[in-house]
């Protein structure tokens, strides 16, 4: 099974004759991610240079064999994308983007536009996504050049991408005076698409319902919030600003403005020390949230990043087993299924991310 964008660049490839049970995915910069089931557990890995070249070469050969039989216009375009030409996409990607560090899974096929770079907080112990760049806001002229570079990079492949994701970490925290012109630029460059973006509770709480209604009128539809947990002492231990009470008030405001929300919770964070309180207070928080059809709750298996490991060792916080972490996720899923009908629940595995 092969999939391509309208430019002819391959996206996914599954070929049992080449690598039994393995699905390969290609990022816009032609990095390749492999994924397969091993002993009932899904394993994934970024390929090294040698494996990438092997995959690209074998895939081109497979495409050529298919084209000899099918004479497809799309496959004809795909054959123009030799392994060397696909490798060269790295330079074009780097010219258009700062690193795209993370996205919500339902936005992997969005048009990502970087209205901001980095994260305005950037001190959570568990996160290293934006440590390589200071927080900055794109000036209108620079943003226009960025949008042009993104459009040239995507080409006809933009047809696959039905939404706009306003990056980086919490771009929606900008004042509406700064944010609205950037949204207008993005929607003019990529028309017919609604806007989505990350927001943190601490800065998001500064906006009023009227502010959020104004953003909805400008095309914003869903706001993604990294709540992580409903247990305030765990948030403090993670150096994550905000509280469960602030999260509740903010989501009430967002819903009152007609926006959909996607709160994100980490299963397993805080290890054995916080496990009971993390689950209990997260359930209490979910009970208070006015979630409805169109909203999405993400459950993200915790992966140690940044300063978290050192702090856990210092404080004697032992990790949960996979079974214990999955039990947390199951309890949250069951609660949502029973008490929040119509709300989608999905897994958010950061190790699967590829843009």
List its traits.
5-stranded antiparallel beta sheet; single chain; globular; 2 domains; alpha/beta; 355 residues; TIM Barrel; 20% strand
Could you outline the blueprint of secondary structure elements for this entry?
Blueprint: E1 2-4, E2 10-14, E3 23-26, E4 32-38, E5 41-46, H1 49-70, H2 73-80, H3 83-87, H4 89-96, E6 111-114, E7 116-117, E8 136-137, H5 140-154, E9 163-167, H6 176-189, E10 194-199, H7 201-204, H8 209-217, E11 220-228, H9 232-237, H10 244-256, E12 260-267, H11 271-288, E13 296-301, H12 308-315, H13 322-339, E14 344-347
Helix pairs in contact: 1-2, 4-5, 5-6, 11-13
GO molecular function, one term: iron-sulfur cluster binding
Protein name: Radical SAM core domain-containing protein
Organism: Deinococcus radiodurans (strain ATCC 13939 / DSM 20539 / JCM 16871 / CCUG 27074 / LMG 4051 / NBRC 15346 / NCIMB 9279 / VKM B-1422 / R1)
């Amino acid at each position: 099974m092969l999939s391509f964008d309208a430019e002819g660049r391959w996206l996914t490839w599954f070929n049992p004759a080449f690598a039994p049970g393995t699905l390969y995915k290609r990022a816009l910069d032609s990095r390749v991610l492999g994924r397969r089931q091993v002993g009932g557990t899904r394993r994934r890995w970024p390929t090294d240079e040698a494996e990438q070249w092997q995959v690209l070469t074998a895939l081109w050969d497979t495409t050529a064999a298919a084209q000899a039989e099918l004479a497809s216009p799309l496959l004809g375009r795909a054959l123009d994308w030799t392994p060397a030409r696909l490798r060269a996409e790295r330079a074009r990607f780097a010219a258009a983007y700062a690193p795209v560090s993370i996205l919500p899974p339902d936005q992997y096929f969005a048009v990502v536009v970087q209205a901001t770079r980095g994260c305005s907080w950037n001190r959570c112990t568990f996160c290293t996504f934006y440590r390589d760049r200071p927080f900055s806001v794109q000036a209108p002229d620079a943003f226009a050049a960025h949008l042009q570079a993104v459009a040239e990079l995507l080409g006809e492949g933009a047809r696959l991408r039905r939404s706009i994701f306003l990056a980086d970490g919490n771009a929606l925290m900008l004042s509406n005076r700064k944010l609205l012109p950037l949204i207008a630029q993005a929607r003019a460059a990529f028309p017919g698409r609604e806007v989505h973006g990350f927001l943190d509770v601490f800065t998001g709480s500064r906006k009023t319902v009227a502010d959020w209604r104004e953003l909805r009128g400008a095309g914003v539809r869903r706001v993604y919030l990294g709540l992580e947990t409903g247990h305030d002492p765990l948030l403090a231990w993670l150096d994550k600003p905000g509280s469960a009470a602030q999260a509740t008030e903010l989501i009430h405001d967002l819903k009152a403005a007609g926006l959909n929300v996607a709160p994100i919770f980490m299963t397993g964070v805080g290890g054995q020390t916080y496990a009971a309180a993390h689950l209990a207070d997260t359930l209490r928080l979910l009970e208070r949230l006015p979630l409805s059809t169109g909203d999405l709750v993400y459950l993200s298996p915790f992966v140690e990043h940044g300063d978290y490991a050192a702090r856990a060792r210092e404080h004697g916080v032992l990790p949960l087993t996979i079974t214990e972490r999955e039990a947390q996720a199951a309890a949250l899923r069951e609660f949502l299924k029973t008490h929040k009908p119509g709300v989608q629940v999905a897994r958010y595995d950061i190790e699967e991310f590829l843009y």
